[in-house]
Amino acid sequence: MASGADAATAGVAALGISGADGEWASACPPLRRNLHLLAPDEVSARCSSAVDLLVLRCGAPTALISRRGFKINRVELAKMLLNEGQMHLFEHWPEPGVDYDKKKSFFDQIRRLNSSYPGGLVSYIQNARKLLAESKAGKNPYDGFTPSVPSGEVLTFGDDNFVSLEAAGVKEARNAAFVLVAGGLGERLGYKGIKVALPRETTTGKCFLQHYIESILSLQEASCKMVDDGCHTKIPFVIMTSDDTNALTIQLLESNSYFGMEPSQVKILKQEKVACLADNDARLALDPNDKYRIQTKPHGHGDVHSLLYSSGLLEQWKSEGRKWVLFFQDTNGLLFNAIPSALGVSAIKGYNVNSLAVPRKAKEAIGGITKLSHVDGRTMVINVEYNQLDPLLRATGHPDGDANCETGYSPYPGNINQLILELGPYIEELKKTHGAISEFVNPKYTDSTKMAFKSSTRLECMMQDYPKTLPPSAKVGFTVMDTWLAYAPVKNNPEDAAKVPKGNPYHSATSGEMAIYRANSLILRKAGAQIADPVVDTFNGQEVEVWPHITWSPRWGLTFRNVKEKVRGDSSISQRSALAINGRNIFLEGLSLDGTLIVNSVDEAEVKITGHVQNKGWTIQHVDYKDTSEKEEIRIRGFKFEKVEQLEVNYTEPGKHSLSA
């Protein structure tokens, strides 16, 4: 009598994937025994044992057992895995009838991994083999390239050029779409939630996502006002999420009524993870906790390009007359200080790609925007990581390597991963690449032979590497602004931040919030207000400047011109003060503030704030990051406000109002 395995093999012969047509599986007996799994669900569900399969063979309708009845995908996926050297994935598979659902789930996951990567798993595995071989050989990705300083714009905050560029950018904003890459949790920060839910600052408690949406809405309104007959354009806002952040991002939006944005303006694109690699042969790694599951890890924020391409949104935006796509990351609280003028630069200079940048000290741990020219004639303007830029310069005739020039900064500006792309050329490029971005691999080897990995690795890609595939004719540039104005990312936890050498940026929740107060204080100073100098204090082991705690809503101070128009007379703010402005038409006319003042008004109200406001205000209390009695978002900052006394005024009616304290 035939064994169960033999009967199973005989049974699936009628289904066209065994016998002569199933020889492709002969090299992998465990898979060959389980060929019935490749049938469509209505067939394979009835073939989980040899007995069921033989009954089906004798009595099933022809439509079910014809080859047309199969999900050919499963057959092709199985063939693909064997052809690409992935036989090990099936070595542990038991006889038919054992772990049937888990085996089916395996192919479901393979299908997802295959469909979410440009070119499918074949491309992923082949790309991985190539990159792993280059990594093992120690190949320099910049061999044959000579670096030089690219062309770009360096802006000075508040001068006439800056103001005119801001105006040009606001005008262009109605033709733009914004894309936020927000696939990460805040675990690296010591915060369990999604990063965009983290308070940007704790004076108002508004989270990053609220600030971003309010900024886009303010740009939308201001841009439409610059059109003679007005407009009703709604700026699209795309958020790229991941398995980790998708549900929580949607919950944050829905529970806060999308922070005032129409739900139809917001599109969520979820990024899938990619397969992990177990060795230099690019064998896919099985999950240590589930032998029927491929281990996966994030592919990097470069996936945003392929997601946009496959979503159809780019063509939709083009049909609506849009010209620009702005990409930004999740926790830079100063970003929108830079957006209007940078967009103005793109429009006036005609940049296909505009990278936002900040002045960078030589050898500072931030990538430098660099023009690379190859001996074969290729050129590109891309970000080169700081640990690669110095040796590249030394190897190409610059004996000092990455050195400061006469400005006191490196001539290679610091990349902050915020991009402005011209939509038309962007679409044409993605038609060629389908959104695939140049990848890299970073295996951690067990020893110098580079024969084995300490743990599985995977291919990664970065959003800012998009220009690597562009032709030399592409107009790629950058826009540099002062760091204090445009760049204060929140990405390090308190322990790691405290280890940063003095004088280098902490990039923590502590420094990120204090940077907002510093920027707002300096903007008000430039507008003519007298703002007291900061004091220095230490929180969570980080020495920072403590400026007056000044915040305002984007609709009050979207551009420097907006701020300057609303600061009149001889206004002054003491160092211990806090000022929160929430309203469009609030004017500071000779205000003297020593304490805490909160002003809220409806947009139809015009409010003048004058006179002397003095109260006990808010005091800063130190908080230890290990103090579990405090909320995580407070602990990671190392401080909280004790709200001793304040003056809060609310103007809910239209018309002219004044506060003469």
UniProtKB/TrEMBL annotation:
Cofactor entry: Mg(2+); Mn(2+)
Gene Ontology MF, one: UTP-monosaccharide-1-phosphate uridylyltransferase activity
Pfam families reported in the protein's UniProt record: UDPGP
Catalytic reaction(s) noted: a monosaccharide 1-phosphate + UTP + H(+) = a UDP-monosaccharide + diphosphate
Keyword match Transferase: yes
One record GO biological process: UDP-N-acetylglucosamine biosynthetic process
Signal peptide span: none
Record's keyword terms, sorted: Nucleotidyltransferase, Transferase
EC number: 2.7.7.64
Domain of life: Eukaryota
Family that this chain belongs to: Belongs to the USP family.
Function: May function as the terminal enzyme of the myo-inositol oxidation (MIO) pathway. May also play a role in the salvage pathway for synthesis of nucleotide sugars.
UniProt-recorded name of the protein: UDP-sugar pyrophosphorylase
Organism: Panicum miliaceum (Proso millet)
